[in-house]
Amino acid sequence: MQDPTPSLETFHIPVEEVSARIKHASDRLDSFVRDRATAFASSSSEAQQESQRHAERVQELKAAIAKYKEQLEHLSNPSHVEELSKTRSEITVLQEKYSTEKGKEALVRRERDKLHETVQEKRKEAQSVPDLDQLRVFHKVELDVVSSSLKLRISGKGDNKVQFIFTCINELDQKRKYSFILYLPPGEPFSVLECVPEIPGRSHLLSELNATRNIYLFITRMRAAFVDIASKENNDK
After folding, report:
1. In this predicted model, what pLDDT tens digit does every residue of 73-82 receive, in sequence order?
2. Does a structural domain hold residue 25?
3. At what angle do helices 215-236 and 140-149 cross, to 10 degrees?
4. Are 121 and 186 contained in the same domain?
């Protein structure tokens, strides 16, 4: 049968106070036993039976007191006190580690959510930017017409670089070449890597190209700029 007497460790009461309480209870119990023994000697049969029940209860209480005394001696043992202190320290360390890990988990969760939002934004941007191959197909007809009518020669330079060479720009020198190399990285802004001769205000034309992604319009405007340069050069002669 399991002992119903609770452990002293469950009460969270200082050892000194527990010891004082046990002594006080033991003294009262001894006094009670003496009083009941005196009454028992001169009582009736019914009273004797009641006294017997009280005596049995007294024995149970004495057994509980004895167990508490035993536990008190164990709790007062220096080795047990040291072990208990060590256990509490370990619990404190574990609680701190738990709090730290919870903080890290929350940080990782925030970073994950932020990364997810960034990925979604990049996907939307990628969907709004035409693929380079799509641009080439879309403008193929226009480029073919431009190449013929504007005396334009287009050649790939590898690594998403395309060179555009114009002739018939300069009225005084129809064979003179005017050229530029356009860099077309997928999903990134376009740029002009080389322009011969240099075109003033070229950055404005490039900004419009990146805003509209209209390569056909950009080529015609670059040719018009070359024509202006050639005209000024001829007028200065």
Report:
1. 766 666 766 7
2. no
3. 20
4. no
